[in-house]
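Problem 3 from the worked examples.
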Amino acid sequence: MSLRPPEDATSPAQGADGGAQGAMPERFLIFMLEAQEYGLPLDAVVEVAAYRRPTPVPGADEAVEGITPLRGRMLTVIDTRRRLGLGPRAGGGLAKMIVVREAEELVGLVVDAVIRVAPVAGGECRPIPAALGLPRRAAYRGMVSREGHCLLLIDPDALLGGGDSGDASTGGRP
């Protein structure tokens, strides 16, 4: 499934929302974990693939489900819930893998569902309040409130780099 959406006339932000004048909003791939929406920058995404059970790797980090082949290359499969400190993924269901590139390797992030591609203007992104109590706050770029719900934006480098569960500032950048 190709994720490079065609450019459309609604993409450019023209400053009406208080964002940067004439700046293009960044596009995010929106996905679900449990009942919460998350977003990954679209430029970090290689493709979306159907989930298939990977081969376990002894001694790997607890968030690593294993490895699986994808188009002739080995893909490390990560349970995104565990990586975000949300607990293990429940078995079953029709999970998807969001394939991203980490350095020269491909990594599959297991999610419950992929929803859509959505633009986020720089002025929309806000820091995540500490009161939300999210584990692994360093893995988030910030949050966007839209239509009565919260979209949590993921920093793929911080997510894949592991890191700690410390309170890194999200800085309010998209």
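Problem 4, a separate protein:
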Amino acid sequence: MPTPPTAQGTEPAPANAAESDRTGSATADGLEERELAAWKGFLRAHREVVGHLDEELQRSHDLPLSSYEVLLYLADSGDGRMRMGELAEHLLLSRSGLTRLVDRLERRGLVARERCEEDARGLFAHITPAGRGLFQAARPHHLDGVRRHYLSRLNESDLATLPAIWGRLTR
């Protein structure tokens, strides 16, 4: 059954705040101009920030950003290891993509694989002392890059608002 109009004869208020601000006309892409600008802006900002961070880590530590992320999750885990499937979920990689990445890190001596005693089919990725050392050396440079390429471009209002936005997008 349709929702009855309001007293002034207009449609009722939208169910969420995001809908209430949409008043523009759709582009040929099916999104309103500002929706399209928000989406394209997000994609461009992500590509540029991640590109800068990746290039800097590779230049200063011969470590791609994706490899740094593996070392980050392993170093921050309680015992320096995680199940491969759990690690893949955190990194948004397929299991085969993570396997290839861990293969490269293992060849460099930065991680090792170990069998899961409870599940013979399961594997853990474990950070090695060399991996922990490289991660600790790279971390200050990486965080400096995060500050320069991302955080320094945001004002206090942005910093207060963005965590809530990211939370809504990642539920």
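Solution to problem 4. Residues 67-142 form a domain with the Arc Repressor Mutant, subunit A fold (CATH 1.10.10.10). The chain has a mean pLDDT of 86.
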